[in-house]
Amino acid sequence: MTPRGLIVAGGIGLLLALAARSFVPDLLKAAPKGCARFTASSGPLVAHAGGGTPDAVYRNDRVALDLADRHGFKVIELDFMEKGGRLALGHGNAQASPLTLEELLDWLDRHPGISIVTDIKSDNLNGLKLLKAAAGRRIDRFIPQIYSTAEFAPVVALGYPAPILTIYRLQPGKDEWIPAANALPLRAVTMPVKQRALAGRIEHPVYLHTVNQPMPGYGLYTDCLIPADPGSTDTPEAR
Questions:
Q1: Chain segment 45-86, per-residue pLDDT in tens
Q2: Cβ distance 57 to 35 under 8 Å?
Q3: Left if phi > 0, otherwise alpha if psi is -120 to 50, otherwise beta: which for 84?
Q4: CATH code for the domain defined by 10-226
């Protein structure tokens, strides 16, 4: 699969950020415990932590994957962590998933149109090495997230597609990473919604997380939004 998508970023991103200020109170609400309803939204969407279900978020399991597939998602983010030298799914020990990596790979074999964005909660490079060893030829089904620009070269050297830079682990207010990010052929940059004022300085597609109401002009990692147009959920090519 070659992910594609449409997103507004770069020079006009700042205008969109200013126009979106009225969204602040609702966008900064705590994550829901589940999705009381699913709202259709246009523009690129990534199902967050497997996608929300009516009774839970951060599931990272087969139930969430199957529902995201039925909703038409083509890109799904999943949380991974290293446990005992093996890669497991889950947002942490308190939110471990019963889905094994082998079961995920089998699920991907049966859903050839879907790609997985990685969010590795333990050491990222070690986790991606473990994932590569398990995935084999399926490595191109995974879109790795990196947590600093320094991780770009070693991750690409592993054979993964162009990564997404996610900045939630970078210190807020320290923006030295922006010129380095703009110089790299990243697939996208994703950031917490409260930092979206940075979008106007980014020369890549910009995604926000985690957003559960429509917000035009950005890609969104989401629990409870679903694609109005399933073909619009793919992430863009690297620039």
A1: 999 999 999 999 999 999 999 999 999 999 999 999 999 999
A2: yes
A3: left
A4: 3.20.20.190
